[in-house]
Design brief:
The chain is 30% helix and 18% strand. It has 96 residues and is of the alpha+beta class. Strands 1-2-3 form a 3-stranded antiparallel beta sheet, with no helix packed on it.
């Protein structure tokens, strides 16, 4: 990211950020989709002139939840949460 935005830093998004409730509500922030290292999920952004231009997730691979159930064996509720959070990301990108 430093090659693309050398003067910008990733900023952790608080649970109150609008991306977590623009369409579907995630009061505890980013959902944990697939277990990697046992750490809590975190969401970060890079902002330019007050607008988020990068959305970066850590310990929550939304794409894992979008794959066929047989790939990661994630339960239905996690896969639905991944799709819902993905919808929030798209709605945010299109409206902000």
């Amino acid at each position: 990211m430093k090659k693309v935005f050398p003067d910008k830093d990733l900023v952790e998004l608080p649970f109150s950020h609008g991306i977590f409730d623009i369409h579907f509500r995630f009061p505890n922030g980013l959902p944990k989709i697939h277990e990697h290292d046992g750490k809590p999920p975190q969401a970060f952004g890079i902002f330019h002139q007050g607008r988020m231009v990068v959305f970066f997730t850590y310990e929550s691979d939304l794409g894992d939840g979008w794959e066929d159930e047989s790939v990661h064996n994630d339960p239905l509720e996690r896969r639905i949460a991944a799709l819902q959070m993905g919808t929030n990301v798209i709605v945010w990108a299109l409206t902000n």
